[in-house]
Please model this.
Amino acid sequence: MVRPRARASHGRGFGAQAEIYEEVRPGYPGSAVDLALTGRTHGWAGLRVCDLGAGTGILSRELLERGSEVTAVDPDTVALESNRAPSRVGTAEATGLEAGSVDLVTVAQAWHWFDEAAAAAEIARILVPGGRLLILINQLDVRVDWVLRLSRIMHAGDVYRPQYRPQPGAGLELIADRLVEFTTPLDVDGIVDLARTRSYWLRSNEATRTRVETNLRGYFRDEHPVSGTVDVPYMCLAYLLELS
Model:
């Protein structure tokens, strides 16, 4: 659970690490993104999508490449400068979009920052009848022992269990889910940069940041030696909800 104070500060820190974020944070597996089309005969082309909590646009870019009409919404103006999609400053609880104006809302790597009940009500408001919500969560695969240790050193934050199922209410019902395993290659410097994109790092003082970096480099020197790059295991949790 994200504390209210931390939630309120979201959108005022990640943009400062936009370039690093783009370099080291992985994209989303195609099969996870395409869960949004489950049971539908039409494709992505022309689909009106609100990418909520879009940030620098890792998912926005993938949606644009599929031919969707994307509006990126985020409270972080600096992060939105790196987003290729048409954007507007807003929050999950107050997007500023018109009622019934989008076919799909996507939330990638941001659901935990929202006031779930208020966000669900706003999502239901901007969706067309029968519209959908796709939640994507990339997280380190802590089922792997060395990755669990890594996540603890970098204070990777809350980890969703694979059994998790969102129940936001407001008429949004879960209709499909998918777990996709994948890896992303990083060297030790890249893993340190990954730590620099975490909210724990961004809100820490310099002494804490130095300690985290020292511990990370020590871990990969002494306990889990790495030569060159290592394939870092991830899992993507994908959830598709439909407005009844």
User: Anything to note?
Assistant: The chain has one domain: 4-138+157-182+233-243. The chain has a mean pLDDT of 91.
